[in-house]
Design goal:
2 domains; single chain
């Protein structure tokens, strides 16, 4: 009897239920993204998560719907905090990266300028074919020492230019030596695959300045007297490499011009 007297509960209109689902979904998403933005703010990903959470929170509140309003406000606040923290750490990360790049560039330039005009130290290495190469035996020839690696994209991009230089210029006039610190097995496979026509050496225990290289590719150009006349950092096209390969020998300074002029003594 009691069961028969119970009235059925009124159901919400489908449209209202749909709106509830949408706005609760937006507000909860905003809240979750805000929490994630704060948690991941130390990583660069925290900033975009906070921005998305902020947008979702604004959309939810802009509709002036009562559903999920409190959650959306929390999501909005947390997203703003996440954006602030994420922006700070993102700025710090990129600023540090930029400063590091500037310091490396400055260091490379200063070191390159310091090396130019200095006699190259002698090095004694063995190429992949077992031939001994002694730098002091190459006096009278121009020498290119290219420091590179098989995993370095700009290094690999330069190799066709060195191959072309080897074909164009007489080996009695120009010697090209590629130097990498990688194992010989890796280098031999790469040399065969790319048909490299100049000596490749596996070496990592060389005297200064060759042990002070901070980035690759770094290419040294030695004149016929064994003087370092140019150092190039990074990728350079064929024209630039060719120009440095055939330039005149490094000019020795005229020390007589540096001496003070003699003072003429006056006649008494």
């Amino acid at each position: 009897m009691q069961e028969q007297n119970e009235q059925p509960r009124p159901s919400l209109p489908i449209e209202i239920v749909r709106q509830m689902n949408i706005f609760f979904g937006l507000s909860i998403s905003s809240l979750v993204l805000g929490i994630m933005a704060i948690s991941l703010s130390i990583a660069v990903i925290g900033l975009p998560l906070g921005i998305i959470g902020l947008i979702l929170g604004i959309v939810c509140l802009a509709k002036r719907s009562p559903f999920g309003k409190g959650i959306a406000i929390w999501g909005l606040c947390l997203s703003i905090l996440g954006i602030t923290a994420g922006g700070f750490f993102t700025y710090k990360y990129y600023y540090k990266t930029y400063k590091t790049y500037q310091e490396m560039t400055s260091t490379k330039t200063e070191m390159s300028n310091e090396w130019v005009g200095q006699p190259s130290p002698d090095i004694n290495v063995t190429d992949l074919d077992g031939n001994t190469i002694k730098l002091s035996d190459l006096k009278g020839k121009r020498v290119i020492l290219d420091f590179w690696a098989t995993w370095c994209p700009p290094c690999k991009k330069e190799i066709p230019s060195f191959i072309e230089l080897r074909k164009e210029i007489d080996p009695n006039q120009l010697v090209i030596i590629g130097i990498s610190s990688e194992p010989e097995g890796i280098l031999k496979s790469f040399v065969k695959q790319n048909e490299i026509n100049y000596p490749i050496v596996s070496a990592d225990d060389l005297p200064a300045p060759y042990n002070k290289i901070v980035s690759i590719p770094t290419t040294f150009f030695l004149d016929r007297n064994g003087i370092i006349q140019e150092v190039l950092n990074g990728y350079h096209d064929y024209e630039s490499l060719h120009e440095n390969a055939v330039m005149s020998d490094y000019a020795e300074p005229n020390f007589q011009q540096l001496l003070p002029e003699p003072v003429e003594e006056g006649n008494d």
